[in-house]
Every structure is written in structure tokens, then in C-alpha cells.
Write a structure and sequence with these properties.
Length: about 290
């Protein structure tokens, strides 16, 4: 989801610049900085960004430069409001026993409502309905396209990293077979050694029954099979159309469950070391999947 895009379009004597930056986020979280004249188009711009970028923490800026682009709207003082402020300030001064301000205008002009702009909303609307708004729309669309191109380049590198981690886990899963073969013999030898130290003998048939139960309880073939299926499913999903990020996250969670179960059943130092290495690879996958749409 991380990306950067920029586009510049010229319209008559103005230069319109659209800038986009995106970071990871579960939803489309949009922050916008646009000229006051474009406020009425904010909803339309948000729809363009959501449709084109899907999700992410989106930081969008639209800058208009040129003659009259930064023109200040006509401002008028409001005498009635100013008089009322003066009356209340004088009354408060007498009541509190403090001197009146000496810099009246500096104080009054900081108070809300003392000034108002005289530009009408109709003037702004008619200005943007023409070619300038269409130029701004084209700048935004081109900016989104440039950012998605950036995302695609990053996505190729990210896909290679994820595939490398999946292959590492698959290799580690194959390494489990070697210590697993010796594990049953070690468990049996340890139990028989403990039983041989008993003063009285023991029932060999009962020993075989207990061994079968114990070995079945520690059997990891099912977990190995499910983990392999999750690895294959992750690879297949990664190769599908964009928008699979959340799905990859769910698959990674399922992989984590199987790896944790392998660790709890391993009961053997070498196997536990392999499980720890699997967990390390999986954590890196989870971190990288956050950047997939």
C-alpha cells in the first residue's frame, strides 16, 4: 500500500499540482489539503481516491499556482459585532477592576465574527464548473495512476520477498522429518529405562498400549500436511488479482496455528529449534503482508 504519486496539469495561466502519499491501513483513511475554492468538490475527489487506491492511509494535496490562484477573497468588517465586543470588554473591565486594552484593534480582530468574506459561493461554483475543474480532475487521475505504477514496482519486490519466506518455511518443514524419525525411538527408550528401575516388573502389553496412545498424541503428520496446504494456498493466492492482502493475512494466521502446534508436540530439542526458525520466517511474512492491498 505504500506509494507516492505526483502530477502537474496546466490550465490557462494556472498550474495545478496533485500529490499523493500512501501508507498501510486497514481501510481508506484520507487526509486532504485543497484550496478553499475546491471545497465543494471534496466528496467527488474522495470518491476518486477511494476507487483508485482501494485502501491505505492516504495523504492528498492539491495546489493551484498562477495569477489569481492565491487571490484573497474581499473582506469586510462587521461594525455591529465589533461594538458588542467593545461593550462587553468594557463591562468586564469595570467588573474585574482591570484596565481596558490599549491595542483595541489588535484584540478585536482576533475575536471570531469581526470580519467576513464577501465572495459568494455562486462565484466559486461557476469558476470550477468550467475547464479548471476538468484540468484538476485530470491531474488527480494521473496522480492516482502514477502512484499505482509505483505500487506495482514495489509489489514485484514484495512478492519476491514473500515467496522466498514461503520457500524457507517449506524447506524447514522438510527438515522436521529427520529428527521426527528418531523421536519415537528416543521416547520409547526413555520410558523403558524408567520402568526398568522399578522394583517390580511391568506388563509389556500395557506398555505397548500406552506407547501407542502417547505416540498418537504426539503425532504431527496432520499438522505437517495442513501447513503444507497453507503454504501452497498462500502461493496460489499471491498470484491472483490485486486486493488479496487481507486474505494473505488470514492464511498467515492459519500457518501460525499449525507451526505453534508443531512446537507444542515436538518434545525434541532439534525439532523445537526448527519450529523457532519457522516462526521467525512467518513473522517476517506477517509484517510484509500488511503492505499488500
Amino acid at each position: 500500500m505504500t506509494g507516492f504519486g505526483k502530477a502537474v496539469v496546466e490550465y490557462e495561466n494556472k498550474k495545478i499540482t496533485a500529490i499523493l502519499r500512501t501508507l498501510n491501513s486497514k481501510q481508506a483513511d484520507i487526509q486532504m489539503r485543497i484550496p478553499t475554492a475546491y471545497k465543494e468538490k471534496e466528496v467527488e475527489m474522495r470518491n476518486m481516491l477511494t476507487t483508485g487506491l482501494q485502501r491505505g492511509k492516504i495523504d492528498f494535496s492539491l495546489v493551484v499556482e498562477g495569477e489569481d490562484a492565491d487571490a484573497i477573497s474581499p473582506v469586510a468588517l462587521r461594525p455591529d459585532v465589533i461594538k458588542e465586543y467593545v461593550r462587553q470588554i468594557k463591562a468586564a473591565s469595570i467588573e474585574a477592576g482591570i484596565p481596558e486594552p490599549t491595542n483595541w484593534f489588535e484584540v478585536l480582530l482576533r475575536l471570531p465574527g469581526c470580519t467576513q468574506t464577501t465572495a459568494s459561493g455562486d462565484d466559486i461554483s461557476s469558476e470550477l464548473e468550467g475547464g479548471e475543474w476538468e484540468a484538476a480532475r485530470s491531474a488527480i487521475a494521473l496522480c492516482i495512476e502514477n502512484l499505482n505504477d509505483f505500487r506495482c514496482q514495489e509489489g514485484v519486490m514484495l512478492g519476491n520477498v514473500l515467496m522466498e519466506k514461503i520457500k524457507n518455511i517449506s524447506t524447514l518443514l522438510a527438515e522436521v522429518d529427520e529428527p521426527e524419525g528418531a523421536r519415537v525411538a528416543q521416547i520409547r527408550a526413555r520410558i523403558e529405562d524408567g520402568l526398568s528401575k522399578l522394583a517390580e516388573g511391568f506388563d509389556t502389553n500395557r506398555l505397548e498400549q500406552e506407547m501407542i496412545y502417547y505416540i498418537e498424541k504426539l503425532d504431527i503428520n496432520e499438522e505437517k500436511s495442513r501447513l503444507k496446504n497453507h503454504l501452497d494456498y498462500f502461493t496460489d493466492t499471491l498470484a491472483t488479482e490485486p486486493g488479496q492482502g487481507k486474505k494473505l493475512g488470514f492464511i498467515a494466521q492459519e500457518m501460525g496455528r499449525e507451526i505453534n502446534t508443531l512446537g507444542s508436540k515436538s518434545n525434541q530439542a532439534e525439532m523445537q529449534q526448527i519450529v523457532v526458525r519457522m516462526k521467525d520466517e512467518l513473522e517476517q511474512i506477517k509484517e510484509q503482508v500488511l503492505n499488500v492491498l
